[in-house]
Amino acid sequence: MSKIRKKMGPLLLLIICQCAINSVKTHSASNPNIILLMADDLGIGDLGCYGNKTLRTPNIDRLAEEGVTLTQHIAAAPLCTPSRAAFLTGRYPIRSGMAAFSRVGVFLFSASSGGLPSEEITFSKLLKQKGYATALIGKWHLGMNCESSNDFCHHPLSHGFDYFYGLTVTNFRDCKPGQGSVFLKGVQKTLIIPIQIAGITLVSLAIARYIGLLNVPFQAFYYCLLIITISLVVLMFFFYHFRHLNCFLMRNHQIIQQPLSYENLTQRLTKEAMQFIGRNTDAPFLLVLSYLHVHTALYASEDFRGKSKHGLYGDAVEEMDWSVGGKSTNWEGGIRVPGLLHWPGVIQAGAYIDEPTSNMDIFPTVVKLAEAQLPSDRIIDGHDLLPLLQGKVTRSKHEFLFHYCNAYLNAVRWHPGNSESVWKVFFFTPNFSPEDSNGCYDSHVCFCHGGFITQHNPPLLFDLSRDPEEKVPLTPETESRFYEILRVIHQAVDNHTRSLQAVPNQLSWDNLLWKPWLQLCCSSLFQSCYCDYDSGESPLEVHSG
After folding, report:
1. Which domains, ranges and CATH numbers included, belong to the chain?
2. Which of 45, 179, 207, 497 is most buried (CB neighbours < 10 A)?
3. Of the spans 67-81, 140-154, 444-458, 529-543, which averages the highest pLDDT?
4. Is 141 a catalytic residue?
């Protein structure tokens, strides 16, 4: 499984934990307390319960020993934003407009206008309607505002969560001094040409009017120069103050720390989670604890720093484990993720399930456990996991799983009902090579169209049951059913495509861009947006930019 271990990508579901906390008054199968733990960038080969011999994850391993281990658990997308949308809604991100047609597949700025649409139904909304107390602690990354800096249309509290403590965007390396810049490497590269054009235009207009070649009224010329100048100043201001503007910690609608401090951050998240549980001992609750570990920027507190055998990454994994107590590709290493479920007395301890499952399955599973009703006005792509977990059925309902690279259908997985094989085809693959200037090796983010990909005709075909590392593509010579398999998969693609409906693109350039009027600051924008109220003091009113 070496290839799988090396190439794990962004949002990775770590643990689904259904458990009755000892101090909590719930032990029945109806309306159980539900705790969902998530981790970023954690490889399926990085945990002891999945075979790792050098990283210490005893608490996570104990959950596996006492619960069910999913060996073919799949993230619905290899990037944070679309995968989280699928996790919360049980639907492919393309259905909610949370899959990008542009290069950028995630939200980069807290002051963007895109996000999870209010029309989408999350499992937190449905459980809240059933009387559950609901909380999201940690990373959100599904947008915040739409038209003003305080409408909070995409905020967790607008999607069924009673309580939020965490980050609205993600854990950029830019947020931690000395860790480099994903933003400058990935985004500024696309803005260099527009900035150069604006600068050249500015100088050219000034020269042309000065020597008499541009005969326009002074007022119009002045406004043109003013607009261009202001645009350049705003861009430069944003680049220079990125950490203060984009990296902050919120409690509900209030900023409590800006910029974000990584000091004891995992402990703070864990403390908030335990306090939420303590506040809700007499009623059912849903807790989503969404770690920043082990997404870059890597960090570990003093108690864990330097203690593992794998540097800062290993320290971060072990710190995340303490709290439990290939990036952006659809290769198995980018989407096959750890999945553990724990519910003593209800699901079998120590069981392994080798059937394909998806993080979209959490939606119907959680909704069923809370005795809520699934929405009947939309397609839900996930399936209730409980029959599989309890051994009532032995086959996954996912005969086909469709893997998107942003908004482009990249690969398809087929698990025939009469076979143990799991076929997977790739229609294209991102260019991942140090020698390829259009590739994603240097930026660590793979784009999904144009010169950034290689089309395959016929598609690449693998049998994951025999070749989980996807080392050797099958051919008509090595697989007698080659064309039959492709025919069935193409028919499934046609059926899936016909089920899609046009929706607003939440990751369009207009929705992705930084908008100063949506910028939140806990102090004046001209005071560098600085505050630290995470010590327990009451935060001041949030200021708009």
Report:
1. 2-85+120-139+152-169+264-398 (3.40.720.10), 183-242 (1.10.287), 403-498 (3.30.1120.10)
2. 45
3. 140-154
4. yes
